[in-house]
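Quick one: structure tokens for this chain, please?
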Amino acid sequence: MDNELNGTYITFDGHVELQKYRYLYFVIMFTAYILILCSNSTIVGIIVINKALHEPMYIFIAALLINSVLYSTAIYPKLLIDFLSEKQIISYSACLFQWYIYYTLAISEFFLLSVMAYDRYVSICKPLQYSTIMRTKTVYVFLILAWILPACQFSVGPLLIANKKLCYFILKGIICNSTIQKLHCVSSTVLNVYGLIVFVIAVPLPVLFILFTYTRILIITYRSNREVRRKAAQTCLPHLLVLINFSCLSAYDVLLARLETDFSKTVYLIMSLQMILYHPLFNPIIYGLKMNDIFKHLKRLFNGDKLY
């Protein structure tokens, strides 16, 4: 069987009354996907078009929103196809690929948020050295590493289980996430240990680094004048909101995959949809409304004015 896994198909068993509500599901998720594409792409376009926004902070925001688009594109097309199909199935190799992309982009999110926190730290705590530290070359190196490192880190996981024997072919969910490990006949100790190492590197360490940088920013701004505090609040608050939102959803995803409690399909569906709906829509709303320079250009766009 190990040599035939690429031809093995897995059935998604997380949909609720799909035959009855398939078109409603499709319309809701298709609308959400279009909103995700349009809202994120609009802000990225504004940043690209306006030379005044070609600063490290806005470049990192654009990268974060592009990451959200890629994250959603790894999930939504297959999900939309499943809503209209008689059978909700996926090949084992395709499931591994979706699992890989899903978590690689999630890890990239934490790396990007860490780089953004560092950028704010240098800008507020070391303003005279900012242009020297955050050079264009440095920004591009950070961006490349934010996508390359997670891709390399997480690539070992799929390789470890690509040829493992399957005893179960029904996945309790609507997408391929960590629950894919429950399909194997024997749990992999090596994979569990490696997964724990990757998790520690990808989540707690970046979060601790971000909290450290914002603590330093808080201390510096507390000793500074009102204008510095206002600037810090305007630029740091959106990042903190995005971090808290994504950290909660990530913890949620990890717990969902490991909970042995036998929840109903409806509860699992609602929990799964929260992970793929909230964050890709949350990012452009926060950055569009809370970042004054972006919000100003958004108003000009909707008023029909030129953006440059």
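The longest strand covers residues 9-12.
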